[in-house]
Specification:
Strand content: 15-25%
Largest sheet: 5 strands, parallel
Strand order of the largest sheet: 3-2-1-4-5
Number of helices: 4
Oligomer: single chain
Shape: globular
Helix content: 25-40%
Structural class: alpha/beta
Length: about 140
């Protein structure tokens, strides 16, 4: 039985991340999704709720953490002893690799940066607000 841990800053969750996570789910028997608790445009509990909904059928455990994974020396018990660690941040990848963890970079959607995706999310929220406002 293989276990994987995915460490992800997901602000906001998007299709590219979902596809990357699904690719990990098919490779391992048990997957723990660790969401970095660092609200940028979305509160962590809302982000966690979205991931729970998207991954409901897979039985994935979701864990949130305030740890700085670029300097952590040891994982919390919930994240220890995985056969593979998948990360989206290259700095976290380098750090965990230097500690000897079996770490891989998650794939991402080419051509779209986190800044672009956050801006698109904010733009969508402003359109929703405008539509609500104009409909009154």
């Amino acid at each position: 039985m293989s276990k994987a841990v995915i460490i992800l800053e997901s602000q906001p969750p998007h299709l590219g991340q979902f596809i990357a996570v699904k690719n990990v789910l098919v490779k391992h028997d048990e997957v723990v999704l660790c969401l970095i608790d660092k609200p940028i445009i979305m509160q962590t509990d809302k982000m966690s709720s979205i991931w729970k909904t998207m991954l409901y059928e897979y039985g994935t455990k979701i864990y949130t953490s305030t740890l700085d994974f670029t300097s952590v020396s040891r994982f919390p018990e919930e994240l220890e002893n995985a056969d593979a660690y998948y990360v989206s941040d290259k700095h976290v990848f380098v750090h965990l690799n230097s500690l000897g963890y079996p770490v891989e970079l998650l794939g991402h959607v080419r051509g779209y940066t986190d800044v672009f995706i956050r801006s698109a999310y904010r733009q969508g929220l402003s359109y929703d607000y405008l539509i609500d406002y104009l409909s009154k």
